[in-house]
Amino acid sequence: MDYKKYVAEKLNIEGLSKEELYGFIETPPNTEMGDYALPCFKLAKIMRRPPVKIAEDLATAFTADEYISSCTAINGYLNFKINRSGFAFSLLDEILKAGDNYGSANIGAGKTVCIDYSSINIAKPFHIGHLSTTVIGSALCKIFRFLGYKVVGINHLGDYGTQFGKLIVAYKRWSSEEAVIKDRLKELTRIYVKYHDEAKLDPSMDDEARRYFKLIEDGDAESNKLFELFKKITLEEVEKIYKLLNVTFDSYAGESFYNDKMSPIVDELKEKGLIKVSDGASIVDLEEYGMPPCLILKSDGSTLYATRDIAAAVYRKNTYDFDKCLYVVAYQQNLHFKQFFKVLELMGKDWAKDMVHVAYGMVSLESGSMSTRSGNVVLLEDVLNTTIEKAYKVIEEKNPNLPDKDKIAKSVGTGAVIFGALCNNKIKDIVFSYDRVLSFEGETCPYVQYTVARCNSVINKCGEAGNYDGVEMNADEYEVISVLGRFSDVVKSAAEKYEPSLVTRYCLDLATVFNKFYIGCKIACEDEKVRNFRLAITKAVKITLTNALTLLGIDTVEQM
Fold first, then answer.
1. pLDDT per residue over 433-474, tens digit each?
2. Residue 196 is among the residues annotated as catalytic for this protein
3. Catalytic residue among 127, 142, 156, 231
4. Which end of the chain is flanked by fewer CB atoms within 10 Å, N or C?
5. Is residue 376 pLDDT above 70, yes or no?
6. Are residues 185 and 306 in the same domain?
């Protein structure tokens, strides 16, 4: 049962709805304090009394029952202890029956969420800077699906702009079809970097690049053939990375897809009197909303990012009728999203309120920021290969006879990279360091994966769990069960806050309390009921950690 809901419904506080109370109820950091707590500081303004007095009065009025065994007031908190035996037995039964569905819900039934993430650039390498958007977006897709939503994962490809004209210029001067097919993205990156070095000496190259991009727009056969070659090679190469990261998409509609969908948007903006002309450019004035103007058309009539994003938003609403449309994009684009969301609102799109910018911190190198133009990047493929190789070496040193070493090394290595990117609050900037990403100790994915393997070893040794009715729990056992019971709330909170790191931190919490339990409580003990109870806990931990890691896009391993 939902104990938080039960407590919220049982409390009767004038001026506060059951839903508001539900939101105030917390899980204490220490189960000795209680299983749930209501901080009465939040009620002081409503009830116009000191928090300590509020807590004391509520505790006096509260009657314990078969579900809530006690209610006590401590320093302004109202702490509740549940009937722990009933809770533990029913929860373990629920987890073992639900299996890989444990923690899921149907709260999203009939609702659609579009998630725009990764959005790699055609003809550019997949570098470490793309990691956050890719794994955050992928995790959010999995979390929302787990909660019953229909999810549309969109890779809004960067396949439009003058850079493709630059690439054609570079290709014609310094490369060939054979070289591109042979060395693929490495060759495209080489000539792209060379272009920018040479263009510093010969600025007329930029005019040539603009001419070739215009040829692409106008449907020139040769230019579009080259563009399609660059696109095909890019998608084939990045698909290898996506496969390693367990990332999939439902749509690859990129910027070029909206070429024929922008004119109606510009016409609508003009019809609604939203367009102003400034220095020849068409803008939407947002000064009264505290923002600079949103550029819709350049003075030469060409479109900009905002134009394409507005067209894409309208297309997505018309096509998918989303309830939410999320954009997993770095916080440097905060202003861009505020501007084009506001333009949609001014256009009378009442669904503009359903657009969400899921901002995250930037990734930089210890030597500074990354730039494809200068070639100063760390390729994600290199990072993944390095972590996989290190994982293999560790396995060779510690367990050389382990079966499927290659498969396990791949799961551990890629898991370390994903987990590292999702471990902290998404808004934090990351300075990429091999030493940190490649660490296999402390609060890391290998630690969590090893905990799952440890559970599996216990299960293989002890077999099936039988009857454990009437068993009395100790503190270590209950602590594990208490954390197990939080999983559903954590998943829902991760969706509400667009914060996969909540699931990552949960994995560490559960692994920590289980390993404490494993050391302090002999599972294969002589008392049959105790053994069955501890084995049921172990199975529940394995199920829950597996489900949590799967939501993050991380594979578990049976042995390590």
1. 767 766 767 789 999 999 999 999 999 998 888 888 889 999
2. no
3. 127
4. N
5. no
6. yes
